[in-house]
Each structure stands twice: as structure tokens, then as C-alpha cells.
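So, can you check this record?

>
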Amino acid sequence: MKIHLPSIGIGIGAIAVVIVVISLFGQGFSNHMIPTIPQGTDNTTLQNDASSQKVSMNLLIENTSPVLGSNDAPITMIEFGDYQCFYCNQFYHNTEPDIVKNYIDTGKVRMVFKDFVIIGQDSVNAAHATHCAQEQGKFWEYHDVLYNNWAGENTGWASSNNLLKFANDVGLNATQFGQCMSESRYISTVQGSLSNAKDLGLTGTPDFFIIAPDKTVSKIVGAQPFDVFDELFKSKLKS
């Protein structure tokens, strides 16, 4: 397992990523699995190195969570995170609520989560549990209960027994959840997301990719304060 590197602290800001993407999101993130590139899509914006750019975009849109927010939101925010990560937990408590209030709840931004499980086996188990929760339509409820019960890195708070307790806390059918966990039904999704993160060159958590209305992509590194996201969202909504 790769050694965890903390997210690169406060103050780095938004870094533009030179990816120009095709109009891929018109169908929306309606299901657990993101739709593939539609046949017959106009690829004219990708003529200069189309192959590598399409691959890069697939690394962002495969192996994700369901959408939080409106499928029609003009901006998509993709978070790569680890449920044991200290900085991910800081982002969840200190920044995400303002993003939800000002942008997700208002229909301007939709958010998806991708697993970058780099701290330990409990990270893998916790990530897998969220996808088992999604079988019962409660990915985000389970996502939230994990961060609300965070108690450090590799301290045992995300043990198998606790993951089952959290399932009960959010009202999941415990038998169905337990069977999903024992069968490792979604381990390929978790491992696929981890592979996507490595292929993108990510080295720490959390990292964010922001897909603007014009289909350009920007990157934010680390658990940045709300002002960083707010400035980027406003600039992209104006463009």
C-alpha cells in the first residue's frame, strides 16, 4: 500500500489543468456507473492529441460515486479522497458545508467522489462500504457518517464492526450490507479509482478537479478554504 502523503496544506490555490474535453456530461451522472463517451460525439475540440486527452477524461469520470446535487448543474466537482485522511476530514467539516450551501443546493455545482485509498486497509474497507450503501441508495449518507466518526489514521475506527454499526446508523438493511461487504462486490470500483488517481499523477489527498461549463478542467490541490473554491466557481460561471 502506498504511503499516505498529506494534502499539500492551505495556500496552494487552484492550478489549471490543460485538458479540453468533449461535451460528455449532457447525459448527466444518473447512475452509479458514469456513462461512456457516446457514439458519434464530435471530437473536433480534441484534434491536437485527442487520444491522450480522452484517456485523461476517462480517469476522472470512471469509478465514481453517485452525484450529489443536480444533474443539470453547469459545474462538476470531482473529489479524490480517503476516508481516513486527516485533511479530507478537515475539508469535509470546514469547506464542504459552504460549497453545499452556496453551490450544490443552488444547482450551480454537482459533486462526485472518487476513492484514493492510500492510508491502509481500513481505507479500502470504508470506501467499499460506501458503494455497498449505494445499493440501498445511501452513498452520501454513509459517506457523511464515515467523516463524522473519523478518529485518526489507522486507529481502528473504520473496523469491520464499526462499518456495520455505521450501516445501522444510516438505516441500511444490515444483512444486505453485510453480504455485499463479505462478497467484496465493489472492490474493482475502489481499485479502479485508485488506479485512476495514480495515472493522473496524484500523490496526496484530497485533490479536486473542476469541470467548467465550457468543458475545461481546473485542479485544486489540498484541503483549501472555501474562498479558493468560491473564486474558481464564480470565474467559471462567468466565462
